[in-house]
Amino acid sequence: MSDFNDTFLKACRQEPTDYIPVWFMRQAGRSLPGYRKLRKKYGVIELAQTPELAAQVSMEPVHLLGVDAAILFADIMLLPMAMGVDVKLVDNVGPIVTEPINSMAAIETLNSFDPKNIDYLSKTIRILRKELEVPVIGFSAAPFTLASYLIEGEPSRKWLKTKRLMFEQKLVWDKFMNILSDAIIMYLLEQVKAGAQALQIFDSWVGCLSASDYRSYVLPHVQKIFTALKGSGVPRIYFGTDTAAMLKDFSDVDCEVIGLDWRIDIGEAKRLIGDKAFQGNLDPAVLLSDLGTIKKEAGRIIDSLPSRQGFIFNLGHGVLPQTNDQTLKKLVEFVHEY
């Protein structure tokens, strides 16, 4: 495609770019008018499992906001659902797992991951590759974040059941993490096979752990995933929230890009990350402010960069549902012109 915009991919590879590329986590949904209109008629899972609709949602931020990459519209629970887990997505609550995983016997009821169970995602990616002139990002939750939903049975802010299983039943924990890691590898490689040009792994809840517990219970499994994905040839992004206290360990994985939340200065983060590209890290709540405040905060982040090469502008977490789409569009323009 002659007009293909590879600015995002160049930044992932730490190559020079004409401007700082921008995309937003949760840009494909929640705050955009086209998505909201579709949600009046369809549930999230139904949207994600209908390729033409999922592609429409994935493309909307590219056309409406002018971002430099599209992320596949999907849900992190599609993978466990493909392994036979009964999950209900409840509006304003999140995923509810009918039978939480809390023992070796429960783990052994999981089905092996079969790529045929996510044919709809592959179809969505193929549509996006045909229609778009920016890269398509595939994604999955990381094993700890997936495990936390499956063990707790519902969204949590304390993760007590998860931690208890992790500390008390190391054999069960390792078995569960290995099963999830193997499934994530196949799930993401299938997305690359369909045409995804970058991959992001979301470790949204891993910040609830200490650095030493992260090293002991999580890092080996994450490293296994990223090592397995290396041969895919696409940039690999590792994102987590509340990771400031473990950022050096978090950045030890074999990936090209580290995604940052808003709780750490980006200059300090880059020092801890070392020789990797980095992505972040505007607080999503800032986008609910006036445009002057938004530009001031975005400019502060860019001015803190030790180097603009290898930097991708993003939020420190997902776009909030209350965010105005025109605000997002103006922020993209501001960063591109800064």
What features would you describe in this structure?
This protein is an alpha/beta fold. It has a single domain, classed as TIM Barrel, CATH 3.20.20. The chain contains 15 helices and nine strands. It has helices at residues 7-12, 33-39, 44-48, 51-65, 78-82, 104-107, 119-131, 143-152, 160-168, 170-194, 211-229, 247-250, 266-273, 291-303, 325-337, and strands at residues 70-71, 87-90, 94-97, 136-141, 198-203, 236-240, 257-259, 277-282, 311-315. The strands form two sheets. It has a seven-stranded parallel sheet. Strands 2-3 form a two-stranded antiparallel ribbon. Helix 4 runs parallel beside helix 7 (119-131), helix 8 (143-152) packs across helix 10 (170-194) and helix 14 (291-303) runs parallel beside helix 15. The longest helix has 25 residues, at 170-194. The chain is globular, with a radius of gyration of 19 Å. The model has no long low-confidence stretch (mean pLDDT 96).
Structure summarized in a few sentences:
The chain has 338 residues and is an alpha/beta fold.
Instruction: Record the strand order, biggest sheet.
Output: 1-4-5-6-7-8-9
**Helix-strand makeup class:** alpha/beta
- How many helices in DSSP terms? 15
Number of strands: 9
- Tell me, what's the shape? globular
Could you list the spans in which at least 5 consecutive residues all have pLDDT below 50? none
CATH fold category name: TIM Barrel
Largest sheet: 7 strands, parallel
Q: CA-to-CA gap between the ends?
A: 27 Å
The CATH C-level class name: Alpha Beta
Percent in strands = 5-15%
**Multimeric state of these chains?**
single chain
Helix content: 40-55%
CATH architectural designation:
Alpha-Beta Barrel
Mean pLDDT: 96
The helix/strand series, from N terminus to C terminus, equals: HHHHEHEEHHEHHHEHEHEHEHEH
Number of domains: 1
Radius of gyration: 19 Å
